[in-house]
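Batch job 17 of 40 flagged for manual review because the log was empty.
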Amino acid sequence: MTQAIGRGSMQLAQAVVGASPAQAIAEPAAPHRWQLNMGYGVTSSAHNAYDAHMLTFWICVGIGVIVFGAMAYSVFAFRKSKGAVPASFTHNTKAEIVWTVIPILLLLAMAAPATTKLIKMYDTRDAELTVKITGVQWMWKYDYLGQGVAFGSRLARNSDELRQSGAVVDGAQHPDYLLEVDHPLVLPVNTKVRFVLTSDDVIHAWWVPALGWKQDAEPGIVNEAWTDIEKPGIYRGQCAELCGKDHGFMPIVVKAVGKEEFKQWLAAQKPAAPAASASSAPAASGMN
């Protein structure tokens, strides 16, 4: 009984680790390195999000320096031991106008570029390829619309067997534990790819941090998104919406390749054309 309880506790811990966004946020070149800031990503959407984040960050730093600097100066320059006395006024109209107008201007400075980039993020027009993503407990279905290629993608068998064994996982021996799939989503680089997302059962969320966006997959609803990956590589993510007991074991792997390599891969995935029947061959020769 003790072993059963211990094994159940370990599986629960692995599920929590598997569902942790920190693993999914990791950059593809170093899947488990520690980072404090958000990743720069490999798409224009990711770059826009990073730029908006840094703009807000530096504005907040500036506000912090001014506010805490003024507080520190006031504490030390106007202390009682130096003969400071309480101010006699209750308010100052000019000061109130200044500290009202300045925040408005800062908000406008942040809102204008953020709104422009947000509109661009949802503009799926002129896409060269459309992929339908369907969330299923607990896997993903990918359908390259108009190409005749579709397949499922689930947690890789070795990770699944390892997590159910109850063994302690060595991160050095299994660097992509719980973040590997049997069939990755293959996409071409430097190509605008449109996604339509839905679900067969409950709400899921398709999230690959390096692409710079997260979109819900909801039953009965079709959501849209797009991406344009700049460089080849392996980019990992996870379902980001609690969808059931195996939510933590629903990874996403995107493999970005060159355009020519993608064309070859796509052609290889298409079902072979049916061979001509033997009965039709003589008729065709007789007609000649």
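Reviewer: the log was empty due to a logging misconfiguration, but the result itself is present. Helices lie at 2-18, 21-25, 44-77, 93-121, 157-165, 259-269, 280-287. Unflagging and moving on to job 18.
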